[in-house]
């Protein structure tokens, strides 16, 4: 039976990796996700086979039923605009589960007394590591969810200069409690209060680490917390001697770490700088530029249509505003009309546009936009200077020229799309409100920029109707 379980685990791991490979492109992403899901089902079956002699089948079945009941409806009915929140929530659940597994292992071994006299130190270390990291991930993910859902303000929330000393105290306290538990394991076990101290201090640390991080850094935070959840799952797998958890956790941890590093580089930020406190909260007065007040110029759908119809190249810059309005299909239709008129249409994708990695790519792929038309920031930035019209759809922070020009800006140094270098810029927004980072965008007041106010889907539809009449 052991050979069967190990064989099923190997099949599951292969499907995890193959499915992950499929996520590298929109055309194969759905299939890759399905393959990975089947792999997880096989891993679950293998685990159930391995515990066939247990007497707790009622609890196991109940857990499976509750998990399916809680997991399927959100995944099926959550709107694409709310997918970042769902990712944060699901990631948090994973971290919380790992922390509970560590606590259960502590209770099951009577405070580690059953393993203290045996060569099973990996059980103690794995459980304690899982408890700390899993708890940080769970509570940190809750804050990320709250900020993305706008239950909490997107701006940094902290205690000022005391923030980092407080975080250090919490980290040292959690580690100290873990050391006491690890070193104090004996035939009599360790008082449960110390293990609870590990979980509580790590949980508060998770809250206090994410609260001071601003909205513009949330995509990186989600990726970082995802990596932490994976590492904690691998540690729990080590404690439980569960190969599936070890391998799956390491895959998640490694991929999440790589993605976090790539995103941090794309923002010209270091991960420690992000954890120390993110963008946001330092907004300027609307229209302020060198002490001079400017007014944004409004335009109409008809004028926008004329500009684009007679352009040689139009670049569309999608942002969270497009996601909220679900305007991707309308944008695809408008681009099709422009292409029939001989206009070349491209899409400029910033690495952190939207509120999670790949957010814009997924939306555009859903509307069957050609993957070749989606250009990454490094590939498209050189083309803005020779572009006739740029259509910005709800992208605020990733088009802000202050990141290049204003050293006092909270996002100074962050690579942005150079849309201000185009001959003409049309910005679709509901209002002049700032983006998720909470800062003003001088682009909106530039001489070459005009604003088309209203719901993005409706505005694009009106532009499309005007194009049909030309």
From TrEMBL:
For the keyword Ribosomal protein, the answer is no
Q: Which reaction does it catalyse?
A: NAD(+) + NADPH + H(+)(in) = NADH + NADP(+) + H(+)(out)
Keyword presence, Nucleus: no
Annotated NADP transhydrogenase beta-like domain residues: 8-465
Subcellular location per UniProt equals:
Cell inner membrane
Membrane topology is: Multi-pass membrane protein
Query: What coarse category fits the chief subcellular location reported for this protein?
Result: membrane
- Which of UniProt's keywords are assigned here? Cell inner membrane, Cell membrane, Membrane, NAD, NADP, Translocase, Transmembrane, Transmembrane helix
| Molecular function terms from GO | NADP binding; proton-translocating NAD(P)+ transhydrogenase activity
EC number(s) recorded for this UniProt protein: 7.1.1.1
UniProt GO cellular component terms: plasma membrane
Please give the start and end residues of each transmembrane region.
6-23, 35-51, 57-74, 86-104, 124-145, 166-186, 192-213, 220-240, 246-264
The highest taxon in the source lineage is: Bacteria
Q: Per the similarity annotation, which family is this? A: Belongs to the PNT beta subunit family.
What does the UniProt record say this protein does?
Answer: The transhydrogenation between NADH and NADP is coupled to respiration and ATP hydrolysis and functions as a proton pump across the membrane.
State the name under which the record lists this protein.
NAD(P) transhydrogenase subunit beta
Organism field = Nocardia stercoris
């Amino acid at each position: 039976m052991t050979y069967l379980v190990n064989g099923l685990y190997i099949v599951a791991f292969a499907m995890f990796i193959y499915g992950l490979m499929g996520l590298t492109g929109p055309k194969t992403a759905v299939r890759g996700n399905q393959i990975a899901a089947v792999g997880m089902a096989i891993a679950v079956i293998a685990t159930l086979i391995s515990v066939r002699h247990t007497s707790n089948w009622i609890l196991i079945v109940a857990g499976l039923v509750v998990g399916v009941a809680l997991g399927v409806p959100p995944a099926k009915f959550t709107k694409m605009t709310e997918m970042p929140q769902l990712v944060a929530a699901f990631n948090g659940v994973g971290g919380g589960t790992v922390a509970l597994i560590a606590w259960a292992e502590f209770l099951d071994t009577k405070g580690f007394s059953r393993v203290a006299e045996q060569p099973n130190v990996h059980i103690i270390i794995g459980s304690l590591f899982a408890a700390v990291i899993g708890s940080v991930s769970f509570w940190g993910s809750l804050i990320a969810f709250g900020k993305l859902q706008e239950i909490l303000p997107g701006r940094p929330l902290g205690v000022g200069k005391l923030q980092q000393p407080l975080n250090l105290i919490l980290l040292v306290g959690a580690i100290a409690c873990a050391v006491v538990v690890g070193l104090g394991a004996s035939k009599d076990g360790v008082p449960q209060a110390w293990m609870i101290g590990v979980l509580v201090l790590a949980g508060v640390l998770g809250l206090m680490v994410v609260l001071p991080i601003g909205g513009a850094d949330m995509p990186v935070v989600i990726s970082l917390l995802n990596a932490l959840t994976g590492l904690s799952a691998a540690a729990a797998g080590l404690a439980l001697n569960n190969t599936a958890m070890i391998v799956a956790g390491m895959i998640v941890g490694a991929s999440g770490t790589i993605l976090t590093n790539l995103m941090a580089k794309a923002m010209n930020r270091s991960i420690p700088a992000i954890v120390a406190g993110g963008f946001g909260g330092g907004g300027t007065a609307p229209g302020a530029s060198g002490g001079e007040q400017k007014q944004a110029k409004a335009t109409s759908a008809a004028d926008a249509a004329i500009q684009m119809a007679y352009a040689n190249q139009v670049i569309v810059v999608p942002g969270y505003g497009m996601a909220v309005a679900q305007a991707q299909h309308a944008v695809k239709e408008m681009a099709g009309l422009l292409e029939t008129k001989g206009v070349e249409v491209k899409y400029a994708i910033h690495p952190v546009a939207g509120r999670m990695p790949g957010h814009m790519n997924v939306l555009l792929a859903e509307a069957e936009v050609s993957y070749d038309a989606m250009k990454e920031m490094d590939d498209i930035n050189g083309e803005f200077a020779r572009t006739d019209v740029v259509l910005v759809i709800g992208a605020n922070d990733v088009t802000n020229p202050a990141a290049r020009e204003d050293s006092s800006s909270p996002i100074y140094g962050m690579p942005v799309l150079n849309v201000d270098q185009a001959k003409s810029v049309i910005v679709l927004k509901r209002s002049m409100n700032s983006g998720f980072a909470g800062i003003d965008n001088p682009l909106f007041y530039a001489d070459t920029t005009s604003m088309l106010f209203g719901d993005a889907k409706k505005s694009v539809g009106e532009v499309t109707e005007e194009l049909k009449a030309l």
